Amino acid sequence: GALVDSFSVSGSLTGGIRDLAFDGTYFYGGSNSNVIYKMDFVTKAIVSTITLPSGFAVRHIAYDPTANGGAGGLWVGPWNTLGPRLYSMTGTLLDSIPAANLGSFSASGSAFDNVTPGGPYLWLYSQASGSNMNDVIQVKISTKQKTGIMSDMTQLLTGLTSSNISGGLFQRTNLITGTTTLGGLVQGKMIWGVDLASTNPQPNGVKIKTLNVGSIVQVNTPQTIAGTLEVTGSNAVTSYTLNYSIDNAAPITQNFTGVNIPGLSTANYSHSTQWTPTTNGSYNLKVWASNINGNASYSSDTLSKNINVVTNLVFRKVVLEEYTGIHCTYCPDGHKIANQYKALHPNDVFLINIHQGSYATPSAGEPDFRTQFGDALANQTGLTGYPSGTINRHVFPPNTSTALSRSVWAAKGDEVLAMPTYANMSVTSATVDAQTRQLSVTVQVNYFANGPAINMMNVALLQNNIEGPQTGGNTNPAQMLPNGKYNHLHALRHLLTGQWGDTIPNTSNGTVFTKTYTYTLPNTIGNIDVELGNLEIVAFVAEGKQEIITGAESSVNITNIPYNRDIAIDNIDAENEICAAKVKPVLRVKNLGSETVTSITFNHNINGATSGTFTWTGSIAPYASKSIDYDSIVGFTVQANNTLTIEVAQVNGASDQNSANNSKTKTFTMTNNNTNGIPHVFTFVQDRYGSESTWKIVEDATGAIVASGGPYTDLTANGTATHTHNVTFSATGCYSVYVYDSYGDGINAGYGAGNYNLKNAANQVVISSTGQFTTMEKKIFNLTSLIGVEEINSISNVAISPNPAKDNVNIQFFLNSSKNVTISLYNSLGALVYSENKGELNGSQNFNLNLGHFSKGIYYLNIQTGDNIISNKLIVE
User: Fold this and answer.
1) pLDDT exceeding 70 applies to what percent of the chain?
2) Is the entire prediction scored with pTM above 0.85?
């Protein structure tokens, strides 16, 4: 009781602190506001603050080291009838205890207790009214209910009256050696402490640590009473009696002699007399050791377990929640593993993909798969990398959190499939009205054994077939689409029952819980369209926020569809720039009719001419979308600017009943990236992470790779390194340059200004890029001639004017030596439409070509001098 020290804490701390919490390094307290102060009592300063929602005043506070997957949390509450709430160390709400569970009770202090058997518990110190100003109550955290243990400190402590009111509460081990103390502050009066538990091991102590009998067993099936025991005393155990009792009946005993279990160690135990339950129902099984080392006064702690006996065992379903992101390189491998596991157990495994964390953050123009629920779900898993997954939010020893590496998902899933459960469930109905977009989901849970007090119903809305980017997508080719995008599946879109579910009011044997949940679907969530035909439901029952005991899934039936046949063309994905008279569209279509579409006939034209048809066959469910790989369109007259029009002609062999959405257009231009000559130089400037970069130059006509490079060596710091590659071409025509970045942020994203370019022998830039892209960038060019530098020097001052031309075009050039000259004109299909040999020429030349009988379009005017050709693009208007 002697004063050791007193001090002030510097900072903006206001008065009114009644209670403190301690995490082993820092103290925490609240001064009747929504701010928690983190304080260092060594430096006597405020370290930081934690801000809670506005309007919530913190008075009592306790540190819970087990919260948030072992990251710790703070139980807090105001001085009123609001129940305690558990917040993370950054202010995220993790859990709460309803005020109704506590009765008329206002707390000024609280303490976390994981020492008392059966815990953890939360002790609360009352400051209610009248004579109840110093009551201490115990609350079991898992059930959120009072245990019935309560002490009136006014009666226990001398000198207290009803005018003396409670303050803070704490728990401390070895304040008095060998004990754990529960202590409290009576404001302005005293600090008291009571002995909560002994921590000094007795010399002959034994504790029953585990019991291998399941919580749900089958009637008339023998059960072996076995598990592990722990010698908590310092002496070795050489003999003991093992006891078990059913519903407090006379114990069934077995004596063990001649054993040698060292002090402070563990050993297995197994009772020779099995228990065979013959009647369904709920039973309490207790196991304990007595007569330790022949001393009848020594006995162990009793391990008690409630056992449900059922006619037939029903096993759990697996709910795999996968944490993923579009920029996560290894996440596609996680998708593949999860899909393969579900394929093995199609009716018993349900997948939920939760896009969350930094890898899920979209770049400009990318789809945003994140939801308002993802961060809180991830925070309780203890995950440290991506992809990560939880199997039924179950903790698999020796793990202390639920997060699992993808390499063990299947093995842990098999363990869950072998776990009996006390309830089964189904999604009895899932429908959405096509006109109102109201989703209605009905679930049913059947309890065939007693469940715990708290069960939460969770209903998750998922969406399949969402096109988007995905780093590392090529490692899961089953989900790669023809247009190079990734087909995202099982993406969480919404939780109809909120963050942690809806409370099931009765979990006792024989209860049937049925409820319908509704949700009006928005047109988009984030920036992703909510497509009715690609929705699915996964529902599950959890014991609080963790431990999923069963689940179910369902497709969504669409009602009130106005048309039988209605195909909408949402988008035409095609080249923005072409090099020849060829375009390869990919259509995104949506089936807005009630019929499953198995065939679509399209009409197309380019620039109002060169019309044609294309028929697709396959399957598109109502209100689902699909990407259609359209046939290449060739043989059209190329102009500087071109317009492709595609429209729906027939659906399932009949007319489309809604023509308003049948047509779409796409514009594209003819490339101006023209070059000539055999030798070229490709210069690639990497950023810091060269190991992510590769490139190739491809001849479009043959698909042959002319040149390629990368990956390169990473640099030690942000910066660039230049790589120069000589490229030799052997044929004229169209070429494509592909540059890849495996991480998905290009080569100029803050780690060095990467870039690239291709130059010809005359040092002219053919194509170039600043390196700002995501996973891939494509550039095209046209190689019009294979003449080298020496041939270029033999002809000069080439001029084609006017260009574009209408009636006539003038051709001028200068020959440095005598050459045989031929003037030729080719259309965009490569067909020769004009040719004239001019004979042997030398010096300045000037010719006029009449264009009056040529149709509009793009042509190539070739000047052939001996074995060499110079080609120039000519536009006829």
Assistant:
1) 95
2) no
